[in-house]
Amino acid sequence: MPSKRLAEYFFICGINYSKGLQNDTVAADASVQQSPLERAYTADIIGHYPETRIEPVFDPDATRMLALPRGLQFRTQKHSLSPSFHSFIITREDGSRLYGFAYTFFERVDDRATCDTMHTLQSQYLAEMSSGKATQQQQQQTSSRSLPRHFKLATKLTTHAQSYYDVAKDQLYVCKCIGLLMSQPYLHVARVFLSRLYRHSRSPTSCLPLESYVCQLLFGVSVPPPGRSVRLPLLGADAVLQRPTVAELPVFEYPIRQLFAAVGVEKVIQIVSCLLLEHQIVLYAHDPHKLMLVSESLCALLFPFSWPHVYVPVLPASLAHFLDAPVPYLMGVTYGATRPSQEDGAANACLLDLESDVLLLPEELPQFPSRQELVLELTETLARFNVHTQHLDRNCNERSRSAGTVERRPRRRKPSWTEAESAAPTVPSAADGDPAPAAPGPAGADSEMYPGQMESMRRITQLARDAGLDLEKLSSLKSSARRLSDDDQYIEDQKCNNAVREIFLNRFVHIFHTYEHFVIQPDQDMESWLYNRESMQNFDKVTFLSDQPHQDLPFLSRFIETQLFCSLIDNKILANWGEVDAALRVFDSRIRRIKSESEGLVRTPSYERCCTIAETERVLERRLRSPELEAPPPPPLEAPADGRSCLSGRFPRLDAALVAAGAAEHDSGGDQESASTLLRRERQRVISEARQQLQNPAPLIANTSLAAMRENNWKFVEQALKECKSRTKRMLVEKMGTEAAALGHGELSLVGVEENTLIASLCDLMERIWSHGLQSKQGKSSLWSHLLNYQELESCKDASQPIDPNFLSPAEPEPPAPPALPDPPSLGDLLTTLRSGNIAEVVSQIADSIDLSSMSLEPDSAPSSPSRPSRGASRGSGGGDGPRQTPAAPDPLKPLPVAITFDMRNVLAMSEIKTEIGYARAWVRLSLEKKLLSKHLRALLSDNELLRSLYKRYAFLRSEEEREQFLCHLLSLNAVDYFCFTTSYPNTVITYRVVIFTTKKTSAATTTANAWVRVSGALRETGPLPLPKGGRCAIFKHKNLGLLTTVQLGHDNTGMSPNWLVEHVVVRNEVTGQLYRFACGRWLGRSIDDGSTERVLVGEPVPADVPVGQLSSQCSTPPRCRSPSVPRRSQPDASSVQHALGDAVNTIVKYFHRPEKERGSLTRLLCGECGLVPCLEQVFSYGYRSSRLFGKNFYLWDYLGRVQLVLESEFLDREGELPAELATKVAICRLVFEIDQAGQAMGKDDKFQVWLLIAIRDRQLPAFVEELAACAVTQQMYDEASFLRDPELTSFLVQILTSLHEYDLVLERSLTRGVKVGRVKRYRGRTNQQPARRS
Description:
Blueprint: E1 9-14, E2 44-49, H1 60-67, E3 74-76, E4 84-91, E5 97-108, H2 112-131, H3 133-140, E6 152-154, H4 160-163, E7 172-182, H5 187-202, H6 210-220, E8 229-234, E9 237-242, H7 256-263, H8 265-276, E10 280-285, H9 288-300, E11 310-315, E12 329-334, E13 339-341, E14 349-353, E15 358-360, H10 371-384, H11 394-402, E16 405-407, H12 453-466, H13 471-482, H14 486-511, H15 526-531, H16 541-546, H17 553-559, H18 563-574, H19 582-597, H20 613-625, E17 629-630, H21 656-667, H22 675-694, H23 706-742, H24 752-771, H25 782-797, H26 827-836, H27 839-849, H28 871-874, H29 900-908, H30 916-929, H31 933-941, H32 944-950, H33 960-971, H34 980-984, E18 989-998, H35 1002-1005, E19 1011-1017, E20 1025-1026, E21 1033-1039, E22 1044-1051, E23 1060-1069, E24 1075-1084, E25 1094-1101, H36 1111-1114, H37 1134-1153, H38 1162-1167, H39 1172-1181, H40 1186-1189, H41 1196-1208, H42 1223-1236, H43 1244-1257, H44 1261-1269, H45 1272-1277, H46 1287-1298, H47 1309-1312
Helix pairs in contact: 6-21, 7-8, 10-14, 14-19, 14-20, 17-24, 18-22, 23-24, 23-33, 26-27, 29-30, 31-33, 37-39, 41-42, 41-43, 44-46
């Protein structure tokens, strides 16, 4: 529970003269190349008050380091010595935060030993510079890392006059700061109090000592009750302290207007998007207060979500190695004379330089929902508060965003009259040693003017003064007319903060206004739920995403996987057992409000502007302008006897006894807490501990001891390992749920965009892990740099072997040398055999002498042909009259190489990828799809010498135990099948290998016709690809076809032996290694089987565990298994046929109820094994009398031909318009005729399949069945128990087919075989139609 006190501690930080000067290696790089005045020295906490307090405990190291982030600085009268104010945050072990506020100023150094030490250091520095040692050291350290992310530093040295200290001429000054530690960020009160207290120490305005005012703030002022405000007198100035109600936004006093004015609206939205998606955020600035302001403002815009990861708004430069942590973070880094120039950035980091206004964004950053409308609303709101942001040109902005960088050139200010006066240097006051204020006008104003402009401004200024005009008075009147008073400006800032935060909260409310419907509440107690939290799903993400606009899915699908969103859902569930989280209470109240306002209306996904700004603004302004309470005055403590509070020119150390006396006076009237209050506080403590248990504890950056740094690094590694475990587990569980749904065992729980999100988050995690502990960064992607180094080492090991350019179709290893072969038959022998008429002998001699198995469509990309078998091995030992043996053909499907470099070469061949991040992600997706990710990474990390050269000892990848656990988590992903590479890169060129498996009979294994093949996939299909004569393997390149669906195989029926018996076809993706089997088992020939010379084969993926050597036996198809000329197996009964047809229809219905991106292949459900078309063939074949009455060569298509003749007799003789009752009969005859006229390539079974598919697609099959059942031909050709004659079975068939009418079935072009329905406008019967033109 937060403390009721306003301030917890007051502290003084500065130099400890008794310890001497020590270089501060934490605050900055204390190298000898810097002059003594530019170095940082160690500061001490001179005093903190109260000195003893149980909770919270004062941390001197963290306070010292953050109060003076640049260490103890020395200056002379030649420098600017104006005071400065900044804030910071201290994160404690329990995750709570203390807000610190420091007021830094410079005091004159009167200690002679310190001045002599500085003079000695100056002499040593000059001696080293003159000897050239420093220059050599500087050249040796140019490649060292001085700023995070390996920004290339362009050193900008200060002038020699400012960096030189002369003990005889110069006055030395040292910095000191006074500060406050508060549990809540009351920035305005802290700034006013510290600045007024500093002024009071220099020129007292009352007789009260400093201890009185410190005791007033520490012990006399409490945070007001919710909804109230208190007026606080602070040394001659009044400050208002207000506290919002539980239904309002929490306190936030940093002026957000400065964030938008410095960065711009569009950039702020982009950075907020990075925060919401938990990217790494790094801010750079000169001023630590600017870093704090930007960091706090960005986190405030996340409300009701809170940043749960590492949060260090001001990070010392020496702790820059924390930026390599493989966890999400928000950190700020100060830099002085050197400024970063962005060349290399992290893979998923967002880098913002607040001084140069340069923003580097992560790649593949999705767009925030309704971004353009949000930009417009924010711009109009900020304009109301006179905040005018600069906007980029849209085209320029898009180009910059595509490159990952957004940069804006600062506008040149117009020169004013007062800028013509040169700025006078700051000189110390003779009275008390205080620095005098500088002359009006900004420093460096001369450099802002163009050549010759300065002289013109001087002339204009002189003319104005000659005319008697008082320029200073005019300038003051002009500025006073524009500027508000401090109190009014504070109120305006608070109103601006409220408006901007309300707009962002309104966006989150409208995006997640239905989130409560998808929260899965547990049915157990809190302890059990906390114990099983990681294995439980608390939010129905799939259903939630299905209700969101399609354009918002890329962002929302990634956001609901973050810890920010999960923490909100956890707080929602924890509210069942305790007090509701404050942010969640506000969020839920706003959702209830918009629901009540729109009750009875249908909400649309359109953008809705915020309508609560005016109401909340009135409440806020009333509290700020009319405080209800008054704070007590400072206690009248006795001044110290030695007059320390009145020492001139130096802020004294306070009297601890006086401060303790003031604390006792204020605490004497405290009330005891009631039993109910204690019980409520205990309950809040339990819930708070539960929330902390659900979040990852952030490392304590402030502790800089070696043991603490090791512990922090261990926390980083542990957190990354925990994140890897949760992500792989989520991917595994969700993907297994998808496959179970595809098999009919459950509902689908993973959509395509969510699967892509999970894989993208895994890629981000791997980039963070590979970036941890790098010796030196070599590119944007640390993973890809590691892979390139590994590839280079492997190429050095294989330097003796030539590089194979055809890496997509790897060359097969050279087989052992065969025995000496007899000479191949001459051309004369072949002609003699040809004249004899023995075709089999001709084919045998050609096959023995010429190897056609390796002929491909693209010989440049095909592998080298294997050695042809010997003629002796192909013939029997008994001479030419003996039985011939089939030659052992070389295996055309040899395994692909399993190597990291092989997959890297495939990725490098992808022309559409342009960045290292893209290459790394493509490699990860390819390895994941091939189930080789864990194996590849294990091989990559097994090179210990390479690891030591690339990574430091504390790196994640050099922690053997954690690395092994990481690889085991990745190994678990092999349990499921991913197609993340095939589906993510649709335009890449892939090499495919087609292998035809024919019968073992020599006479039917080859064809003399010109064969061709057409491959179709989910993305596109190829054209007809000619096959080499006599060959059964072909290789071709084509744009990614996606998951393969069908193969169309055929020939032109030419030659002396065109008939071809094909068992099955296998197609392999040579990049991913995916195998597809297309069963055939039919003849291709005009004079055999059903007369088909083309077959459409439906593919099925071959399991990855089937060895390539056993592929022939695993994928073999019984020849002519569906030909009526072969005796069929026992026919199933009617109930089995009904059950199979019902399952096929139910599968199609489930297909259309799935998300569109996860529906898979409809072709497989229609024509695959156990598909709808095979089941309908069983329906029409059940009770069919073909084998008993009409011979064994009668097909179902012949039955439709007889039906056509009978039905034509009923309407051909009619004149004029046909009646409606004949429309179905005409449709049957027209469809049969159009299919029959489509070409002679289709066989009778193929024609019947096309007839079924078109009738189902056009929703005509139920009417066709009823018409066929009433036809006289059916009575002759079917038994009474058949589906077309049994009324109950006919009714069942019609009803189950009618259930498909509500779905639009889109057929692939290969399934319809070019049949165009309605091509014949007026059907006049089969005998009267003109024959169709054939190609």
